[in-house]
Automatic annotation (TrEMBL):
Biological source species: Caldimonas aquatica
UniProt-listed PANTHER family: TRANSCRIPTIONAL REGULATORY PROTEIN
Record keywords, A-Z: ATP-binding, Nucleotide-binding, Transcription, Transcription regulation
SUPFAM superfamilies per UniProt: Homeodomain-like, P-loop containing nucleoside triphosphate hydrolases, PYP-like sensor domain (PAS domain)
Keyword Transcription regulation attached: yes
Pfam families: AAA_lid_14 (PF25601), HTH_8 (PF02954), Sigma54_activat (PF00158)
Renumbered residue ranges of the record's region Disordered: 428-470
CDD domains, alphabetized: AAA (cd00009)
SMART domains noted in UniProt: AAA
Name of the protein in its database record: Sigma 54-interacting transcriptional regulator
Amino acid sequence: MSVTSVFDPEAVSSELPRDARSVFELAARSMFQLFAETAEGMMLVDRHGRVVWISEGYKQFLPALGFQHESDFVGHAVDEVVPNTLMREVLRTGRPILVDLLTNKAGTFLVSRIPLRDEAGVVIGALGLVLMAHPESTMQPLMKKFSRLQQELDDARKQLAEHRRPKYTFASYIGSSPQALEVKRQARRVAQTDSTVLLLGETGTGKELLAHAIHAASSRAGRPFIGVNIAAVPDTLLEAEFFGVAPGAYTGADRKGRDGKFKLADGGTLFLDEIGDMPLPLQAKLLRALQEQEIEPLGSNHVIRVDVRVIAATSRDLPRLVAEGKFREDLYYRLNVVPLRLPALRDRLADLEALVEALEDDIARRTGMPHREITAEAYALLRSHPWRGNIRELRNVLEQVIMMTDDLRLEARHFRRALRAGGVQAGAPIEAPGTVQPELHGSGARGAAQPEDREIEPAVSTAAGPAGSELQPLPQAIAELERRSITAALRKTGGNKLAAARLLGISRATLYEKLAAHGLRG
Ligand SMILES: Nc1ncnc2c1ncn2[C@@H]1O[C@H](COP(=O)(O)OP(=O)(O)OP(=O)(O)O)[C@@H](O)[C@H]1O
């Protein structure tokens, strides 16, 4: 846009009174005068970049620039007398640089550079203004605030990157049994590709750990790893969680819009944990996102392209869910590109010792407590335990024992109590006839009561308050019953919340709410 096209005195004079042109010229002269007087310094260069004039104020900078006399400065090429100037840039592009910091041997200056044009709009020179000398001292409070904000932003970015960094690598997956080595070999291979991976296995077998490790070994390692635990998010919030919300779609906290997990994982890996708990209506949308790599935030009619590698995991029997009409067959096949089955701990007992050592080491490091020695007899007892909760349960038991005793030698007797507290007597049959293992079943819909519920009946009936005991207000009795049922379910599942929620016939999100309400750590 040329200056004349905006301030054309001819055009102005046709619409304004006759003396408009002289008013305009007067205005231009006054503005020039004002700049010359208020700016710390001002200079004019011609179309060849030669300094043709400097203001009285500008003369103060000459000694610092290395000149005794005005004549040593005026008449010379601007970039020869003012190091680092961008005046030539303005002459070349015809675009002003309204605010800039210029630093050279004379100091730092807040400057402004404006092209000058003739009536045809051709650049015939440029005006340079020194708005402020040494702004680093004058503007110190502002600069300080700016650098503090910048520092805070950098810290937040670092924290976020740290948070999104893969927590585990293949080295974190402990085990050298043939089963463990095979699963690591397959996972390493698949890490070199961009294929969708489906991790299958009971609860606590290390599916999430392996998902992190695959990401860390893939070409996406430098990009985010984003996890969503589908079972932990209420159905009504899942769509927004996955695909995000467009600005203005809602009032309140989401008014500004929010990125979904797909967007956050762009360029990286999205880990969909407990995929078997995905509500049916959302499965079609997920399938589309996986196939097209396109998402549509809630309340928006625009699609966003994403580049996301998906790793899904489940402890549920997906083919069975498909047969029951609870999981879309097309989504199942889309996810089941590379299935990896993680062995249960009871099927790789050869790794138990190495796992115990690694977990004990980790617990000691985290808690600052001394290392413990574990006797052969204790190992024999641990090997005979059914380990329904797998490595998570093993860790819980170990943690409990370490917390309960100061003894440096951990014997079978130490573990016996913790294993009993886990709900299953060491060496006792894994399940009584008619009971069902919490994981790999859970055939019911999210939150629906399960037939497995009868497993916790004993806890429920005793908690209900035995006949003849003191009566208490109903709300209190109900709260107590709820608390006891939750504790029993958690004990039974080795602390696994999803399995406990299934046993109780509630969603994991509800379980979390109730844990908080009862002040239970879970
Ligand atoms: N092979 C392993 N080596 C070391 N630690 C392991 C291994 N497998 C699992 N763990 C540990 O056991 C715990 C549970 O693992 P993880 O959460 O990966 O299991 P999961 O299969 O995803 O469980 P869920 O299905 O319940 O979500 C974590 O603390 C993890 O570090």
